[in-house]
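Appendix B. Worked example

We walk through a single record from start to finish. Start with the input: the chain for Iron complex outermembrane recepter protein, Pontibacter chinhatensis, length 742.
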Amino acid sequence: MLLAQELYTGSVLRADTGQPLPGVMVTASSGEQGISNENGYFSLATSTAPARLVFSFIGYKTVVISNPRAGQELRVLLEPGAASLQEVVITGYETNRPLLQTAGAISIIDRDVIERFDEGSLVRAVNTVPGVRMEERAPASYRISIRGSSLRSPYGIRNVKLYYDGIPFTEANGTTALNLMDAANIGSIEILKGPTGSIYGAGTGGTVLLEPRRAAAGEQSLEVGAMTGSYGLRRYTATARVGGEKSNFLVQYAKQEYDGHRQQSAVDREVLLLSSEFRPSDRRSISANLIYSDLYYELPGGLTRDQYEQDPSQARGGMFGSVAQNASMNQESVNVGLKQEYTFSDRLRNTTSLYGMHRFRNHPFNTDYERNTNQEIGGRTSFAYNTQLGNIGATFTAGGEFQRGFEAARTYDNNGGTAGDLRTDDEVVAKSGFAFAQAELELPANFIATAALSLNDTKYDITRLHQVGSGNYKYTRDFEAVLSPRIALLKQLTEELSVHASVSSGFSPPTEEEILTSDGQLNEELEAEKGINYEAGIRGFALRGKLSFDVVGFYFNLRETIVSRQDVSSVAVFRNVGSTDQKGVETSIAYTLIDDPERPLSQLKVWTSYTFSHFRFDAYQQNENDYSGNKLTGVAPHAATAGLDLHTRFGLYLNLTANYADETPLNDENTVYADSYLVAGARLGIKRQLGQHFGLEVYSGVDNVADTKYSLGNDLNAFGGRFFQPAPGRNYYGGLSLKYTL
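Next comes the structure step. The output line below is what the pipeline stores for this chain.
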């Protein structure tokens, strides 16, 4: 059977100058995508007549054309300026709808937000989002919590799933090494908050979708950059881009060095990214990515309150101190991913991805020495079918995901930073997978209903080949397959306003590191977390598009909550403690005072985000102690971020940011708190085109301008009172970037 197609062609131009715009992404609601060439021309063949075409380009307002006519040349004008709320296209639920037509708590971090800061870390960009908290226990030691605490994450990222270009970046064992990636590798970030098991499998925390950097159609350029800053910060980048109508290719190298704001807190990281995309036909597109990372970072360790107040720059001391034991992480890895999008007919399309990963870790810790090798393969596929059920438009999506990881893990005595006698030798096979199905219905009166379901399964096989003073064994833990449903309903009240509500179920099995702790002990009693999330929200814009807002309220009841404590040897141990009640409100508001590219002051925008968290232990009994009703450890009741962005026609720009966090309980007993803090920063720069081929950016910035003393990445339930991980004091940075375009 021949594939019926609709062809849409035209040109994309700057609204203010009439000049062609290359590299504009053209997305059809039916799933197909194309890019405008160096003359601004685009040609997009679709399997069926789409309800809309979306034209998006960084730095320009997105344009949505409803019910476009095939065969008619389109003339699309894009205005400079940030995209407003109704124009952002959401890919997370695989329906390619504008944000105003998507039921769910979703936040977008685009490239402009990432570049508001120094790019040495993603922490400040991610923390502009309400309901999301990113921390650094040490430089390059990240953890993320979405609508919850970091109780399960004494180190690393857990209970939050990450994807890069739609390919799993979270490993089969439930952990994510985001520090293997550089901020320059990321084009945008889409965050889905709360349980999203209907599409992305097990998890109660949320899902983060990372989009890679791409070369625009018709672009051939070479860009180099350098930055230097306080505490010995040095950063270098080089990027080559080649883009055409049918393919694009990007090579990027980034190197970052940091002497550290504390003892034993240096970083040395190199990342190489190869990102490519090919469109051999109107029915097929293929993308391939490779990330090579060589990372070394030191671990200064937690301080007691007295040590923190006396000298926040010191590292953990004593016999097992961080300097004495050379506490640090050496990590080398390669991630390779391949994704194909294919249209079979006028109604059916498929997206399939495959990936492989190899990583080696050499990790002297305060109390032991660990050497681990990981190898992993996996894949994901989804089919989307568009149809009409009478006068109701429907999209049915179904698919699955599978991951298999193998780890050879050995622990040794740590003799002053060198490996001593072998303690344990383990082989761990982790398997995780799920199948999912989703139906989305466009109902009368501008209602959109979604019903989804996934079946999740996780299994660990642990073989102990050696243990001092004990025999060998083989242990298998197979978590029973669990169904996770999601139901959502959205009503678009006007072209400028929509409301939504949803109920979703979450299932989160323990990670391998929670079952097999770093001291070699098995945690056989640990059960999976389960919870139900209720949420409702309103989003829209007003005042002729100048004001945008997004407000969500939620209630999440989590059962079999997993918490961690440090034992006498600083090893994190985990257990289930009953249930938690988590109520919250997340708010984002932005107002554009000026948006006129012809004026000397071409853009002036203010924005803020605010998170209210009323999180409590509902039922928590530990021996004779009853912690029921206590505040959830690691959660600030109030958090807010505000900013101002200013741009001039000449190319000068200014970004101001302030971040506030309320006092935070650091132990389950609620007897120790981290102080509240307010931290402000600024970045000033200029971007200019120098002739026909060269572009230059020069910038400088300051973080923590008031030199506030605060702790970021606190150790929760720490043994010996070592709760505090001091953040840098006032620090400066400056740099430049030079781009040559053929």
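Two observations about the output. Residues 619 and 628 are 5 Å apart (CA to CA). The longest helix spans residues 305-310.
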